[in-house]
Amino acid sequence: MGRRVGERVDGIAQAWLARPTTGTSVSKAELRLVRIVALCMAIALAILPAFLSLLLPASIALPAGTALVLAASLVCAVGGIALLRGCAREMADQAPAPRDPEDELALYDRFAGLVTVHDRSGQVLAVRGRDKAQFSDWMRPLAGRGFVDHIHVSDRILFLRALDSLRQGAGEQAVELRFERPTLSGEQTQFVYLRCDMTPHETPDGEMAVIVQTRDISAEVALRQDAAEKAAQAESANEAKRRFLAAVSHELRTPLNAILGFSDVLAGEYFGRLENDRQREYVGLIHQSGSHLLSVVNTMLDMSKIEAGRYEVVADPFEVRGVVKACEAMLKLQAENKGVQLTSRIARGLGELHADRRAVQQILINLVGNAIKFTGRGGLVTIDAETDGANIKFVVSDTGIGIAPEKLALLGQPFMQIESAYARNYEGTGLGLALVKGLVALHGGSLLVESRLGEGTVMTVSLPIDGSGISSPAEPDVALPAPVEFPPRLTVRVDGGRTAAPDEVALRQGGSAHGPHAKSA
Amino acid sequence: MPKQVMIVEDNELNMKLFRDLIEASGYGTIQTRNGLEALDLARKHKPDLILMDIQLPEVSGLEVTRWLKEDDELHKIPVIAVTAFAMKGDEERIRQGGCEAYVSKPISVPKFLETIRIYLGDA
Fold first, then answer.
1. pLDDT for A181-225, tens place per residue?
2. Distance between CA atoms of A252 and A256, rounded to whole angstroms?
3. Which residue of B lies nearest to A512 if distances are taken between CA atoms?
4. The model's pTM
5. The domain that contains B84 carries what CATH number?
């Protein structure tokens, strides 16, 4: 019953309503609105005049109520339809414009580089892009197979693979490809590096297409190659430096054996007495200088190992007292000769330290040696060892010349002795503190330098007691087998008419596969 | 007949130093600069002690030591490694290689002579 009334209302309304311009859905909403208004009018028409007749005389109430309801219904219907149409227009404005394929392609002309539309197999359907002229003059014919045919053969697979993953449903692909570009003469080709950003796309008729934006990245590739080359050069320069230091150190040690050995023989007077004290003194000086040279060589070797990340920390627990005492004993004579008093104070109950004993010894010897070197006659050098939380703290203090605040930052750089720029009053390479820094860092410890010019210097080294901060070598020395023939020699030997590289020689000497039979083969 | 010490050393000056010191101590010497030759000389002369440089041309001293130690006759001869590889861990490696003792270069003359006397049983 209601339905029939509704249809009737629709019939009347459709005759009255002006045809909307867009679609039929809005018209449906309008009809629904008209139906609701008609329903409300029917109910109000029954109630309102009756209600009014309670307040007013029936002769006035009935026509007035009917007129009121009719007027209100009319206003509601017209206002509602106007509102609905307003909304519909707004929605129509927001919806995408109807797509025209030609307009869309024209849009691509605003994008940098070359923009090509490809079909599923990679054939070019359309050529666009702001800079398409740069490509079309050599990538001929660009339409059809031209694009793919110009990709360098070994890179073509990359493009096809990317295309394939797009067909499989991948969202986007980017490939860097070499294209073959004919030279001006046309006889030869040269490579051009191009980057292709590939985006899948569905054509209005439901076909799959791929939009490829291609840009010339030759300059970028050149930069990249340049950077890689520079990095490789730096790496090889570093390697050469390491090899050089190692080889030089080793080559210096061998003659030092003769210098120290023969001077030792003379000083020991194994083959008869020396004639006078001056001769004995000179022999002693030769030996002393040789020993100094040896320590420089050793330090250099250690430094090069630390820098190359090849310094192997062999950590074991050991008594701190022993190391401090050994260092004191070793440098006592040197201190006495300079008129410097050397003392050590070891905290009661100071236990074991888990660290590389040789490294700790070297740290102390270098710090104490420095302290003695930069302290004048009558001065005092003290070694303190104590526990400080989870660390063991070694404090080497002197009453020497001190270091100016602005020079503190320079400390510990190889070959940098603070005073060396204008007056070399003190021998040394400046390697000592660099080595200390390196060794302390290998143990995860810290080095603190406090100093006041003219009053003295306090060097504090803290090392974790349990060895927890020890770092392992960056790259384990797998290349050189068991008896490490390190450092390699500078000399290059010729083996069967072939010049062997130094590291090959080192490997061969260290290798275990060369028995006497292998040799004779 | 004095006890014989074979010196395997490729550096001329070091060879001279060792030879002079050993001969001055009253021992005889057999000298070679070559590891391969060392094996033949050891078989021929049966020295009482061998001083072995580790870095030698062609074959390493450790290699020669291993052959010596694998030889039924020669394995009894003590081998003292004399080497400039004074780095950490070198001593263990050299001892593991079969050398009885290890002296690092540069040598300390008194210690060097003492070590030789000990291994010749004259200390």
1. 887 776 777 888 999 999 998 877 888 889 999 999 989 999 999
2. 6
3. B63
4. 0.51
5. 3.40.50.2300
